[in-house]
Amino acid sequence: RVKTLLARVNEKKALADLDKDENRGYVVGVLGARGGLGTTTIAVNLGAGLRARTKAEVIVAEMLPGQGSLAMDVGVTSFNGLVDLLSINKLSETTREKVRETLVQHKSGLKFLLASDRPRDMQLINQIANYEVIVRRLSALARFVVLDLGVGIQPFAEKILPLCNEVLVVVEGVPNTILHARALIDDIAASGVGRKSIKVILNNRIRSDTQLPSSQVQAKLEHEILSTLTPAPEVFAQASRVQTPAILCQPESLTTRQITKVVEHVTEQEALPR
Fold first, then answer.
1. Dihedral (CA of 189, 30, 115, 19) sign
2. Of 75, 74, 81, 144, nearest in space to 114 by CA
3. For 103-133, how does the pLDDT look when each residue is reduced to its tens digit (9 = 90+)?
4. Degrees (nearest 5) of the Cα angle 140, 142, 147?
5. Residue 189 three-state SS
6. For residue 266, which of 110, 47, 3 has the smallest C-alpha distance?
């Protein structure tokens, strides 16, 4: 019993020591109102844009074990970083150096914390305390940290969302998705994130007359849309072939300009006093 109590004290001390980390980076969470909206693609291209603009350290992290897809997109074979960190039993062992060792360097200059694609690893999604430590450590390792949070609010969101300086919600111009997004924004705000720190990206992935224009989506959401991405399957297909972010693959494309708008917003917000 004494050992158990001492272990709890040490874990609390380890969490308290996290607050002593200096030079915390700017953390941006990206999540989708539903699946298939390109959340990971937006997270990666936002990270690439931040890296290109600032030349600073940028980390893009997948947060869903067992559902990783980024490794294949960027041509990386080592993708167990997140699983390894979530599997650590003692939080005190999740040191800054330990987290740094799990990061994968990409030719674009980005650093990735990658999740596995093995379904059995999904059980680690309930390692909530580990998630908090991981994000805090990441924020001490880079000027910008972009978190791919997947769809909706996952079990670890209660700890993760309040650590984000901004949260980007990805939607599409479809009525049902807009309804989901409205509820999602309310839930994010209830978790402790100010509504002004919640931004919406309208990602129209396919050309369709059934999708609503951005003005109508914004009105139905009752929330400002930061940027609208128009369909560009050719751009993203080429990016996948050369295993690099789309905005680096075609820097003069309309897609790059649309994502650059998000990059400019994030850099402006990061420069403000916190």
1. negative
2. 81
3. 999 999 999 999 999 999 999 999 999 999 9
4. 95
5. helix
6. 47
* pLDDT, tens digit, 9 for 90 and up, residues 15-57: 555 555 557 999 999 999 988 889 999 999 999 999 999 999 9
Give Cβ neighbours of residue 233 (< 8 Å, ≥ 6 apart). Answer: 205, 206
DSSP 8-state secondary structure symbol assigned to residue 89: S
Spatial distance between the Cα atoms of 233 and 132, rounded to a whole number of angstroms: 35
pLDDT in tens, 140-196: 999 999 999 999 999 998 899 999 999 999 999 999 999 999 999 999 999 999 999
What gap in Å lies between CA 92 and CA 11, rounded to an integer?
A: 6
Whether the Cβ atoms of residue 112 and residue 72 lie closer than 8 Å to each other: no
In this structure, are strands 58-62 and 111-113 parallel, antiparallel, or unpaired?
parallel
- Comparing CA positions, the residue from 163, 92, 90, 153 lying closest to residue 125 is 153
How many residues are given for the chain?
274
Whole-angstrom distance, CA of residue 57 vs CA of residue 110: 7
Which parts of the chain are beta strand (E)? 26-32, 58-62, 104-105, 111-113, 144-151, 166-171, 198-203, 225-229
The strands making up 166-171's β-sheet, listed across from edge to edge, are: 104-105, 111-113, 58-62, 144-151, 26-32, 166-171, 198-203, 225-229
Phi, psi of 147, rounded to the nearest 5 degrees: -105, 125
Asked if pLDDT for residue 10 goes beyond 70, the answer is no
Calculate the average pLDDT of the chain.
Answer: 91
Task: Give one word for 70, left, alpha or beta, with left for phi > 0 and alpha for psi -120 to 50.
Answer: alpha
